[in-house]
Design a protein that fits this description.
The chain is α+β, with helices and mostly antiparallel strands and 168 residues long. 43% of the residues lie in helices and 24% in strands. Helix 2 packs antiparallel against helix 6.
């Protein structure tokens, strides 16, 4: 009889504790030594994220070097209007090759940043010019299809200092 009373008392006590609606505070919460420490993997992810941001900024700057060049401006002046007049939609610039093809999602690896300027029509896409920027020599080239060679073209060299800062 005494054992039954103790058993019932223990069950009641356990039931009361189990039904406690107030969550207990995590004892480790305030102890900085017991908090989760950064792992090599979390540090690598942060470095990778920073690297991707740096590469995107670099790609954007190289694209800006191209689209601010006098040759690109000459080539695209009035182009959109002419394309629409011919039944097209617009034109665009695509990065086809770069030193970081996986991180910036270009089509393939290249030691240079390779761009194609193209016209967009409902049934096709027409490539009209190709350009390359060489980050080692800091030169911008246009591909001459008649001579099958790259010809250096002028661009805003002030952008190179920004590119140098990003590249480091």
């Amino acid at each position: 009889m005494k054992t039954a009373k103790i058993s019932i008392l223990v069950l009641l006590l356990l039931t009361l504790l189990a039904c406690n609606r107030h969550p207990r505070k995590n004892v480790n919460e305030d102890n900085p030594l017991l908090k989760e420490q950064p792992t090599k993997e979390s540090i690598d992810k942060k470095k990778t994220k920073n690297e991707v941001q740096r590469i995107k900024a670099c790609d954007s700057l190289v694209t800006n070097i191209l689209i601010t060049s006098s040759r690109y401006k000459q080539l695209t002046k009035g182009l959109n209007k002419a394309i629409i007049k011919n039944g097209g939609q617009s034109f665009g610039v695509r990065l086809e090759g770069s030193p970081n093809p996986i991180k910036n999602q270009s089509w393939g690896y290249s030691k240079t940043y390779d761009f194609t300027v193209y016209e967009i029509y409902t049934d096709r896409q027409l490539n009209i010019a190709r350009f390359s920027f060489d980050p080692k020599s800091n030169l911008l080239y246009e591909y001459d299809t008649d001579l099958d060679q790259l010809k250096p073209i002028e661009f805003d060299r002030n952008l190179l200092s920004d590119l140098e800062k990003i590249s480091k």
